[in-house]
Hints:
The protein is an alpha/beta fold.
Amino acid sequence: MSDFPRSLLEFQRRFPDERACASYLAKARWPDGFRCPACAHDKGWELSTKAFTWECASCGKQTSVTAGTVMHGSKLDLTVWFWAAYLMATHSNGMSARQLWRQLGLGSYKSAWLLCAKLRRAMVAPDRSPLQGVVEVDETTIPYRSNDDPPAGGRGRSHDGKILVAGAVEIEGRAPGRVRLAAIADGSAATLHAFIAANVSAGATVKTDGWPAYQGAPGVSHEPHVVGSMAAHLVLPWTHRLFANLKRWALGVYHGLRRGKHLQSYFNEFVFRFNRRKTRHAAFRSLLGIGATIKNSTYKMLTGPEATV
Ligand SMILES: [Zn+2]
């Protein structure tokens, strides 16, 4: 949509109140005008007694414009949701719950944290289709910390006190396309082949630094570039840039990542943001759970892995 706000001021003008947000949701749900999700009748009216709810003229079914979105049933104002999603989608480093709490003047840190957690759910599966064409694949280690520890140091493929991360970058001409990241247990062939199988299309060409474990990954052509570690950034420039950005982001936003069950969700957040760096509007809609695919004017809530088309 070309009218997506490009600045905070534009955003404020576009979504000044609950009514403006509700109209936007109605338009997203019914781009060609109201259509009943139960009987497909195209006549209905907005109820004056129930906020943001439409009633079908034929079967009487009532449909809220927030049904199926992350906002449904929430006590928070739609404007708060819209602001939070906009800040999260457009701020290049993202927003922590603490930042949202302050920026939006929310009542408690806990409600900011819950708001954040709900929006982040849309980031769970960064993309549906695997990477294609020529894909750089590499691994790196990043320091992790416990609550009390400073980040640990170290170099090379040994990874004591570090998180081992596999990354993949699709090459589109002279620029990076989409990316993927995953925490991995080790640098073995089994692990790296599984990473490639999960993230790279069959028939793609995988470009690596020649680490022997990459050899023989099924379904892809392998293009090893055996180099000394000093020149790796020349051979695999995009994965190196990806890892550098990831490390800077992890330090800047989270003061270093922690090992544990949330680790992959941090990677997913980074990947979500990276892959939508040129399509902030799509990111905004994905975060709010506004259906990315609207077929036959029937609004479909995408949940789970499909939620972030
Ligand atoms: Zn109906």
